[in-house]
From TrEMBL:
<feature type="domain" description="Sodium/calcium exchanger membrane region">
    <location>
        <begin position="22"/>
        <end position="159"/>
    </location>
</feature>
<dbReference type="GO" id="GO:0005262">
    <property type="term" value="F:calcium channel activity"/>
</dbReference>
<keyword id="KW-0812">Transmembrane</keyword>
<feature type="transmembrane region" description="Helical">
    <location>
        <begin position="183"/>
        <end position="202"/>
    </location>
</feature>
<feature type="transmembrane region" description="Helical">
    <location>
        <begin position="147"/>
        <end position="163"/>
    </location>
</feature>
<dbReference type="Pfam" id="PF01699">
    <property type="entry name" value="Na_Ca_ex"/>
</dbReference>
<dbReference type="GO" id="GO:0008273">
    <property type="term" value="F:calcium, potassium:sodium antiporter activity"/>
</dbReference>
<keyword id="KW-0472">Membrane</keyword>
<dbReference type="InterPro" id="IPR004481">
    <property type="entry name" value="K/Na/Ca-exchanger"/>
</dbReference>
<feature type="transmembrane region" description="Helical">
    <location>
        <begin position="46"/>
        <end position="65"/>
    </location>
</feature>
<keyword id="KW-1133">Transmembrane helix</keyword>
<feature type="transmembrane region" description="Helical">
    <location>
        <begin position="85"/>
        <end position="110"/>
    </location>
</feature>
<dbReference type="InterPro" id="IPR044880">
    <property type="entry name" value="NCX_ion-bd_dom_sf"/>
</dbReference>
<feature type="transmembrane region" description="Helical">
    <location>
        <begin position="122"/>
        <end position="141"/>
    </location>
</feature>
<feature type="transmembrane region" description="Helical">
    <location>
        <begin position="278"/>
        <end position="295"/>
    </location>
</feature>
<feature type="domain" description="Sodium/calcium exchanger membrane region">
    <location>
        <begin position="182"/>
        <end position="310"/>
    </location>
</feature>
<dbReference type="InterPro" id="IPR004837">
    <property type="entry name" value="NaCa_Exmemb"/>
</dbReference>
Length: 320
């Protein structure tokens, strides 16, 4: 059991521990969803007041905000020595983003994407997944490899900042306390919710006899991917499918390079054989998505259904 389990209030004697852990998972997911929403809102407003370009806000602040649950959960699990949950959360979240969420949004409305997203961000997503698979092949993510992943993310952010510098807005130099308050409250909820989700997920895996990898790939990944799902679905319903695609691709890049990179820097991670296999499946899904984008610069409803079906098959194979 991880070190933080004792920090929780123990359930009354005679009650089913699993039921309480499920309740904790629900509370944690709500905290993650609400916290990420407040974080994105507050950070976006602060960034605009600083004169940060809209493109950079979308691909950095929003992408980071929706990836904040993955950051909190993955780093918390790494500190607790739960490497399978750390790796499975990132791999599972990216598979969910590109399968259930991206495919599901396309089922709601065919998704048009820009050439820039396909040629720059899409190809970078493939490259980042390839890099993740290469460093994981030896069964370990060292601090040096984590630093390489994180440095790659920083280089990407610098490139985005330069690309968006021409459209920079004028800074107002005026801060509103509610914006800063939202940012801080959202961050606190994400960190607290992520911690609670890891603790509860580990307990469920132990009691139910399910591997931590499966729990991380399903329950934890689904919980931390809620912000991406809500943001992308809302954008699709409003007819802004480009935002949906950009948010999901940006979040996946943050997850692969930033989340696991920082986690390995904090505490080197072991990668089980099933983790390597899961990363290989993620690479296949990533390549398929970019190819589907590139062929017609549109993700149709049929193609969205294909991605959802593949994601469902992956879940089924891991649960069996």
């Amino acid at each position: 059991m991880c070190y933080a389990t004792q920090a929780r209030v123990a359930p009354p004697e005679g009650t089913d521990v699993v039921l309480f852990d499920v309740l904790y998972v629900v509370v944690a997911v709500v905290a993650l969803w609400f916290g990420a929403d407040q974080f994105v809102t507050g950070a976006s407003r602060v960034a605009r007041r600083l004169g940060v370009p809209g493109l950079v806000i979308g691909l950095t602040v929003v992408a980071f905000g929706t990836s904040a649950p993955e950051f909190a959960v993955t780093i918390d699990a790494a500190l607790a020595g739960q490497s399978d949950i750390s790796v499975a959360n990132v791999v599972g979240s990216n598979i969910l983003n590109l399968g259930f969420i991206l495919g599901g949004v396309a089922l709601v409305r065919a998704m048009a994407v820009s050439r820039t997203l396909v040629r720059r961000d899409g190809l970078l997503l493939v490259a980042s997944t390839v890099l993740l698979l290469v460093v994981a092949l030896d069964g370990r993510l060292s601090a040096v490899e984590g630093g390489l992943l994180f440095a790659s993310l920083l280089a990407y952010l610098v490139a985005l900042a330069r690309a968006g510098s021409d459209g920079a807005a004028t800074a107002t130099d005026q801060f509103h306390a509610p914006d800063v308050g939202r940012l801080l409250v959202g961050l606190a909820l994400v960190v607290g919710g992520g911690h609670l989700l890891v603790v509860s997920a580990v307990d469920i895996a132990r009691v139910a006899g399910v591997s931590e990898w499966v729990i991380g790939l399903t329950i934890v990944a689904a919980g931390t991917s809620l912000p991406e799902f809500v943001t992308s679905l809302a954008a699709a319903r409003a007819g802004r499918t480009g935002i949906s695609a950009g948010n999901l691709v940006g979040s996946c890049i943050f997850n692969a390079l930033g989340v696991l990179g920082l986690a390995a820097l904090v505490n080197p991670l072991t990668v089980s054989p099933v983790g390597v296999e899961g990363t290989a499946w993620l690479l296949g899904t990533t390549v398929l998505v970019v190819v589907l984008f590139y062929t017609e610069e549109t993700l149709s409803r049929i193609e969205g259904g294909l991605l959802v079906a593949l994601n469902a098959a992956n879940w089924l194979l891991n649960l069996l």
